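Action item from last week, closing it out:
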Amino acid sequence: MKRLWKVLPPCLSDLMGFETVVNETEGLGLIDDSSTYKPLMFGRDGNGRPDRGRRPSMNDNSDVGGRPWAAGKLDRDKYAEMTGRPDQEGRPGIEGRHGHRGGRGGFGGLIPGVRVLNSDIRNEDIITGTENKVMLAFEKGVKQLSPNFVLLAYGPSASMIGSDLEYAAEKITEGSSFTQRAFIDEPTSRRARRGDASTQSGLPAASVKIDGEKDYLYGIGCTLEAMGRLLLAPCETIPGSLNILGANTIDWAKEAFRDLETLLKQEGFQILSRWGWKETTENLKMAPAAALNLVVSESGLRLARYMESEYGIPYLAGAPFGAASVEILKNRLKEFGSMAAAGNLAKGQSMEIRSAETARRANEEQIKGIRSVETAERADEDLRKEARSVETVGKPNAGQGKGNDMETGAEILIVGEQFMANAIRRELLRRGEKKIRVLSFYEMDRAYMENGDQKLTGEDDFARWANAPSVRMIFADSDLQPLVEKEVRWVRLPNPGSMFPVESMDAFNMMGGAMDAWLNQEGL
């Protein structure tokens, strides 16, 4: 987020990933920041991104816009009552400070479905600290939303001045009386309505170590892990059950998630919880009872590894996009069920479905017994095309390619969320394509990178790859096209992680045969 982008619009920040997760729960999110970010809106496919409508005038009654009373959803007096201040022209208020076009409000729970507030820190808080403002925001959030738990995150300003959100989380969890020192600045009418300046909560609370400097996938992953550490406790395993981790509303279309649930139920699995999708706190707390975790995007890996380490729950990882990938997933699920039924699969002792990280911790003989994608490649090229595993178990030194892989002559580049890109590569390899590299501006996990894959550091980095002589086809956001100075075949990919795309393309259904149909339509 620190880099200056000249062509590609900036991506959603880690704080927007935080918001994406919290909005799908019964919790409360607090961001210690002066900004009132726009809420992520939901498109027809169920995925979220900031609304990019035009900015209306004060008297605009259209259903787009910067103030919550647009289309009569909230009148001005109600807005003033809930926020404690009237909307004033020329003052940073609900429209935010991040330059978002359109949107319907900011953090604060004013809009249905938004469960994240900001602390509204100001210049004087740089000296006195933000603790008071955080607790004021907490009180307001509890009153408006009645949450089951609380997650706190740092905005850039609070991070720079060293705010202590861990202490605030402890106070919230303890339910201690917290006397506000800064109430002198609060309107008398508000103090009188509340009656006192203390809070007794006892709600589970934790801080998430993000600060607005990284991308949304990092924020989603850190938030899911923090939720897991906060809410989960050991419980009895329920055979034939699983959790879905990482199916977030930015990257996953509603239809794709529906098809995934249908598939898992047809295979006889009970879904206990959905991490990243709409879910109750009660169901989230059931997660340690699962026999298996299914990780469907890179953002679910942190939580999966935590649950494997803490509760011994093995996991499969990969996006089941494309009919061949779905068949692989079915086979892995059946294999898992057979091993569990035979008593050969105790928690934390899986073989074929264990993660690369677990495999590396095993002894050398055990590692040799795990059939990875790389092993399949070395054994038989034809088998490689047909048996790409849903989980890529990397070699001990799996990760970014050796040096600059442009010298090896990559012909096809796929730029996007890692698991989606890996699934597209898997299908293209099955169709006979070769020399394919996955690149991403977002978070990438080394265990799921093949030699030559790379996390991009900026536009110039992508331009060097895209203009290499051997490249003939690129799967990517169309906003990247101005960086390519040669003739290539361009296949557009969704760009839901882009904040202000020139050409918007929401996530679409790639589950099973839907991805095959898309590739066929593209003439591939």
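Closing note: The first strand starts at residue 28 and ends at 32.
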